[in-house]
Each structure stands twice: as C-alpha cells, then as structure tokens.
C-alpha cells in the first residue's frame, strides 16, 4: 500500500487571481482573445501594451465592469464571474482620478467606507491614518480642484487603500502626470506594494514604468498575451519582434537561419547565434541585437562575430547614435548604439570594426 505523501497534504495558497479562457467581443471585434492569466499572492504584475491592445478590458473583466462573453474570473480560487463588482473586494485606481468634485478630500476617501456602512469614528480613524501615510495631512478639507495632479492621484490611491483590499487594480494611474511626478509616484507605489503586501495589477503603456515596478510583465498585443515574464526575461529573451521592439531599444536584422547556430542576414553578414528549437534551419528568421551589445573592437580582436564596415552616416540622438555602415559586400546595416566614447570620433568614410557575442543575439521568428 502506498504511503500518503505529506507534501500533497500541504495547503498550497491558491492563485490570488486567475483568468480562464476569457473572451470579450464588441460586435464583431474581438477585444480579448482567449486570455489565460494567473496572478500570484503579493505579486506586482503589469499589463503592458500599445493603446487598444485590451489592457483596460482585462481590468474591467476582473473588477466586474465588463462581462466576458466566454471564460471565467477566479479570485482566491472562487469563481466570481457572476458576482457584482462591489462584492469582489477589489481596490481600483483610475488614470483620471475619478474623484467626486463636490466632495472634499476627507469625504472622497471616506466614501467607500460609508458605502460599506462603517461607523463614523472608525471612518475618522481610518481616513486620518491613510492621509498621514499618503502625505496628505492638512488637505482633508480641500476640494479636488484645489489640488495638483499628483496630489489628486494620491487621494485616488488613498481612497483605494483605505479599506485594505487584498487586490489593487490600477489603470494607467500616472498617465496624466508629468515625467518627474510620474517617477516620484512610481517610487511611492513601489513602497506601498511592499508596505501593504497586496497584489497589484497595474496597467501601463510605458515600458520603463513596467520594467521599474513589476515582478512580472504581461505584454498585450491585439487582445492576446504576447509574452509574460520577469522584466529581465522580457528584455533579454523576447519571443517575438513585437516583444523585442516594444521593450527597450533594438536592432532587428532580417535573414534566414543558415545553420543550427548561424544566421545569414539579408545585408550579407554571417552571424554566429544561439539556435532556437522552434526555428528551423533554412527558414526565414529575424535577429535581435540590443544597442548596448554592439561593440567597437580593434582590428585584431578575436571574436566570433567581428565585421569591418565603412561608416556612411552618423546621427546623434540623445543617449544613442544611429550609425549606417556599409559592408564589403555592399550591404548596408543601420544600427543604434549607446553613445559612449567608443564612437566619439566616428568619421564618415572611415573603417569601423564592430563585434558582438553570439550569446547577446536573440533569434526571433520571421
Ligand atoms: P487599452 O486599455 O489597451 O488601450 P482597451 O482594453 O480599452 O485597450 O480596448 C481594447 C479594444 O476594445 C480597443 O480597440 C477599443 O476600441 C475596444 N473597446 C473597448 N471598449 C469598448 C466598448 N465599450 N465598445 C466597443 N469597443 C470597445
Ligand atoms: Mg486603457
């Protein structure tokens, strides 16, 4: 007889949030196409993607503002697809703050507690406490219009945190703020994530924001999940040209896979790469080269991918230079590189030796 395996008896915490086979249609338009997503307890997960890719629709399906045409939403293992929004126990922060303009800060923050019928003195304590934590003491009696954008969003976040939801949904909460305020608020949101231990699902179209904040990023493309992974996985191991170009600066070469570890570019370069089991030898492929991996090397440098070019054109674009070079075979290669000293004295018509490591290249499907 088999002995019971005690490991199987251990209580495994359920996923905090799970979308199963979720579809959303607007007329004939498929806004969400078979979304399967698991969010772990305490995780900070960002939904990243271009405008119209379905990020807000995912949030709306989770918070009950939109009903999926198929599939289900589970919170802590419980199917809540048919549970009304207010009974799902979620916190929500919007881009446009969604504060009630005729109410002062105190009443805005107290609003969800009054809806939940908390007694007055408990509300007073809770609001005072969150005002302090959000650096909003002294603002309790102001109306939203008497606050800056950053302060209004602090009120929006305070109103969400005040009843300690275990899941917090944020839809481009910093989208209306200027760059400096956005960076400051990113730090505050990070601190809140650590302090509350809550699970965050955060929508943004800003790749830097997603890289900075997230434990994992879910990249959306036309209503589907393109890729999901840690910021490092997304940046260093993108699965597609879409993912490679959406996160970070990139150079994409088209060509074909000439051998298991050899890429032949259309511009005439034979480049040693790391093969990928799902890309067949002989088939069309793309190659990703991040700008920071392209090195100016000496003519005698011993490396597997070293090429001589003639410089045709150099453009300085902030932290990057855009260089066009011509190979011996005549093919052109345009690439971005980090603007550092290596490239300080690049002269048009001069020779340049460029090199990169096979392990720094990423093969992508064509
Ligand atoms: P994102 O938040 O990534 O910008 P959305 O989730 O808001 O994208 O929208 C995804 C797609 O669904 C868009 O093409 C949008 O126009 C469409 N859409 C969203 N809401 C509606 C609606 N209520 N009626 C019709 N189309 C909608
Ligand atoms: Mg949106």
TrEMBL record:
Any one GO biological process: quaternary ammonium group transport
Keywords, alphabetical: ATP-binding, Nucleotide-binding, Transport
Tagged with keyword ATP-binding: yes
Domain of life: Bacteria
This protein's record includes keyword DNA damage: no
Domain ABC transporter: residue ranges: 17-247
Protein name: ABC transporter domain-containing protein
One GO location term (cellular component): ATP-binding cassette (ABC) transporter complex
GO molecular function: ATP binding; ATP hydrolysis activity; transmembrane transporter activity
């Amino acid at each position: 007889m088999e002995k019971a395996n005690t490991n199987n008896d251990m209580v495994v915490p359920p996923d905090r949030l799970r979308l199963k086979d979720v579809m959303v249609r607007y007329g004939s338009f498929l806004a969400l196409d078979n979304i399967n997503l698991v969010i772990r307890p305490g995780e900070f997960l960002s939904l990243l993607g271009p405008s119209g890719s379905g990020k807000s629709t995912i949030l709306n399906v989770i918070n009950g503002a939109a009903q999926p045409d198929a599939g289900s939403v589970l919170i802590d293992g419980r199917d809540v697809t048919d549970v009304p929004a207010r009974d799902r126990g979620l916190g929500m922060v919007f881009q446009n703050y969604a504060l009630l303009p005729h109410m002062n800060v105190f009443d805005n923050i107290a609003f969800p507690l009054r809806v939940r019928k908390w007694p007055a003195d408990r509300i007073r304590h809770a609001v005072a406490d969150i005002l302090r934590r959000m650096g909003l003491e002294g603002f309790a009696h102001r109306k939203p219009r008497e606050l800056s954008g950053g302060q209004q969003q602090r009120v929006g976040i305070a109103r969400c945190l005040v009843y300690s939801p275990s899941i917090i949904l944020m839809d481009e909460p910093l989208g209306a703020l200027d760059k400096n305020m956005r960076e400051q608020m990113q730090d505050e949101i990070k601190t809140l994530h650590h302090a509350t231990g809550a699970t965050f699902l955060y929508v943004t179209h800003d790749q830097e924001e997603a890289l900075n904040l997230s434990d994992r990023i879910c990249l959306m493309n036309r209503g589907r999940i393109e890729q999901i992974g840690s910021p490092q996985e997304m940046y260093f191991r993108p699965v597609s040209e879409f993912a490679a170009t959406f996160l970070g600066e990139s150079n994409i070469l088209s060509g074909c896979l000439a051998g298991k570890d050899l890429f032949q570019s259309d511009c005439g370069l034979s480049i040693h790469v790391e093969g990928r089991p799902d890309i067949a030898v002989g088939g069309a492929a793309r190659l990703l080269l991040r700008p920071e991996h392209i090195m100016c090397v000496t003519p005698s440098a011993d490396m597997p991918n070293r090429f001589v070019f003639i410089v045709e054109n150099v453009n300085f674009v902030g932290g990057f230079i855009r260089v066009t070079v011509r190979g011996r075979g005549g093919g052109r290669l345009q690439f971005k590189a980090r603007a550092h000293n290596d490239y300080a004295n690049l002269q048009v018509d001069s020779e340049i030796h460029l090199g990169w490591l096979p392990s720094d290249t990423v093969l992508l499907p064509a």
